[in-house]
What does this fold into?
Amino acid sequence: MSAVAEASRPPNGVAALRARFREGKAGLLKTFGESRATAAAAAKLLRALCRHVDGTLADLWEHAMMPPGAVLVAVGGYGRGELFPYSDVDVLVLLPSGADDANAALKSSIEGFITACWDIGLEIGSSVRTVDECVAEGLADVTVQTALLESRYLCGAKRLYNTFHRANLDAMDAKAFLRAKTLEMRQRHQKYEDTPYSLEPNCKESPGGLRDVQVLMWVARAAGLGKTWNELAAKGLITPFEVKQLQRNEGLLRLIRARLHLVAGRREDRLVFDLQTAVAESFGYQPTKGQRVSEVLMRRYYWAAKAVTQLNQILMLNIEERVNGSGGTPMQPINDRFFDRGGMLEVASDDLYEREPHAILETFLVFQETPGLDGLSARTLRALYNAREVMNGDFRRDPQNHAMFMRILQSPEGHTHAFRLMNQTSVLGRYLWVFRRIVGQMQHDLFHVYTVDQHILMVLRNVRRFFIAEHAHEYPFCSQLASTFDKPWLLYIAALFHDVAKGRGGDHSELGATEVRRFCRDHRIDKEDTSLVEFLVAGHLTMSRIAQKEDLSDPDVIQNFARMLGSERRLTALYLLTVADIRGTSPKVWNAWKGKLLEDLYRLTLRALGGAKPNLDADIESRKQDARHTLNLYSMLPGTEQPLWKTLELSYFARHDAGEIAWHARSLFRHVDSTEPVVRARLSSVGEGLQVLVYSPDRQDLFARICGYFDGAGFNILEAKVHTTRAGYALDTFQVISPQMDQHYRDLISLVETQATIALKDEGPLPQPNRGRLSRRVKSFPVTPRVTLRPDERAQRWILGVSTSDRSGLLFSIARVLARHHINLQLAKIITLGERVEDIFLIDGPALQQNRAQIEIETELLDAISA
It folds into this structure.
């Protein structure tokens, strides 16, 4: 063995410590894994791991022959005395003032100690400082100050540790620390979207996670108010009932985090989809009717996180009052029950809600109607928290409460904040019992990123913004329609109930319509308004389905939709709710293209409702006139468009607007008889991505070859309009997006025009599709691939429907199958809902007339779209 290798070998003592440490930790984790999943078992594990590491570090400290004047200090979470299975072990090597850590012997000892820690498998975070350096760094960085606040003596010079401890307490500025930790917590919450209801929450850092509990204890200790919940209760900052609630929910969060580490086999604080089922099974949960085991776990997590969020608000406000001395802030009376206390709504007495239950809902009406209120005071939050049992069946049936709830809905402003507060304080679920059933309920699909209750409140917020002038720039057309709608509160009710029956099994739209009908009856809403709201809840998915899956150039589609609606009022209400709903699912789901489809459907249906019978010839002539006007603006000579237009069917003009028709004519007037492919691209007219025009002599594999180019170039196809001219040319228009769109779009347009032309000239075999990697969400929530093939209403063409998980190369894989069977493509609607696709193709071809060939095509398509 070489001298270098010999020197790098850990000494026998360290080798023995390594074996002992690893065996000891493995034994503790094995015992915990085999025990019942209880908070007590988790607490026992955290303490046992801490003691095990304490003893190991003390042995390593002695083995490293550290100088007698130094001290080893546990800091951070380890200093708190709890250690999760794969958490870092944070330690401070504290040196006496004047110690020279550059001294060769001292430096060697410290390096030897830290190296030995890593050698035995301790993932430590270490720092080396003097007392003065600790104080200075703590004052400069609140994160360092927080870690030092939770310090714990391990071994070494006890007197130096005591000096260090006193110096840090003396340097603590409670007001500055509270302000810094409040801002830090607010920033952390924003990072996690200000909600405990993310579908993959971080059980440590997300709102309502363990960090929110720890912040309470940090600011309380910094202010000298106590080190335990019972000490805070003795100071009047928290009630004994709230202590029990905090301990219970903190215990559950600790248990979940410990089990999560154990299942992952590493430090993992996110309840990611991949691990939720395994963690739930480690709790011993079993699937129930309509509920997966992961949903059982997550429901418990969300309820605990919600309780922690509420209690964190109450206690932080109480601590802030003590630290800042704001308890004596003058109060302005609002009415006999409520005061304005420095911008916070305060109850007149702690037992107000027990004495006068009607005041519970009045709280939120007063909050809406009183200018200058920023939130609820700690006293009010506590009173609501303790009054939950008052909100029983009698409370929900009380006509006076019904009237108050309607006043909240019909109030001119403040709905978003009021309803969010009602949900945060559990009042909304207690009053609307049907809403309580979906609080914290997961949505197992690939496009919702919120729990059902958070999605509903997001949709309510979106609807509300249509009626606020300050937000008119976001969706001008929606704001324009909203300004003429007579009763906005009917849309708020529809938003509250549109998904309220999810998770029960059956059609949630129909079940929701039954629930909203009952609500309207109890709240004395007249027959006409009840009919509208019930219609909206029952049909809230209809407009998006028609816009995205039907051929809007087909007059029958528009007429049938208009007959179903029956009135302009219903059309406007459904349009506003549909836009708000799609926007409330996920930031990824809404795009300008979907917005244009919905707006087109609205305008076409509005005209049909006005009694105008579809007149395709008149519509097409109007579009041609508009297109000619646009061509004149580009100094195109009259009649330039005719050589192209005379080769086009009516369906072409029906499916393109005047702007697109003019663009095509301007791009192709010199190339109508070209034997070479022509590719032109421009920024999309709907404000997102590129529109790409492909004009080429038609051939069987042309569409597949175009899709192959886009697949290889990293483009995602949103829509394809496919036409074949009378002269045998393909005239196809694609709506595509690319991650590179934000920069150098002119270069990208030039690149597409050049490379796509080269790709279309290729006569070789089609390349293999790029079978991209599936995302974690797709792996966790796989979509069963489905293919449907049915004749259209006129039995002239076929409608091919494809539903599957999204991935790169998918459309190209479909196009290859169609090309192989000589299927002609007339229209393609590419619908991406998060990470699920619902594609519709209008096709024809001789093979579709034969049953055997149909089955073969469907089988090959299923193979092509399977993940």
User: Anything to note?
Assistant: The mean pLDDT is 88. The longest helix spans residues 293-324. The first strand starts at residue 71 and ends at 74.
